[in-house]
Amino acid sequence: MGVGQDISLGTECEFFFAVALQRVFESKPYTALNRYSYTVLRVNHGVEIYPLTLSDIANNQSYRCDTEDKFLESLETVLTSTKVRKILRSLVSQSES
Fold it and tell me: What is the pLDDT of residues 64-91, one digit of tens each?
């Protein structure tokens, strides 16, 4: 998971974090193919957590969440989506090869 803070002078502070699926193989020679990462989602919010925007990178959708309940509902939608499950299965199968 990546976490960051984006600060620009003269504008409101924005915070974000990203969730990625990653596979790493400890093999030699080391190549870029030994490490693969796929960002599934990104969450952006101001100084106050709500409202926040959940960007579903995997399915190219965005959700505005005004409450924790809406955030959890949207998060469940993203993480249980067919595309995310397919990506996860692919990473697991590659790691078992």
Answer: 999 999 999 999 999 999 999 998 888 7
- Looking at the DSSP bridge assignments, the partners of residue 42 are 18, 55
Residue of 3, 2, 75, 6 lying closest to 47 (CA atoms): 6
Domain boundaries, the chain: 2-96
pLDDT tens-digit profile of 53-70? 999 999 999 999 999 999
Can you read off the two tokens belonging to residue 67? 């409450």
- Is 4 in contact with 15 (CB distance < 8 Å)? yes
Q: 11 in helix, strand or coil?
A: coil
Give the predicted TM-score (pTM) of the model.
0.73
* Closest among 34, 37, 38, 40 to 97, alpha carbons compared: 34
CA 53 to each of CA 28, 56, 79: distance values in angstroms, whole numbers, following the listed order: 41, 10, 16
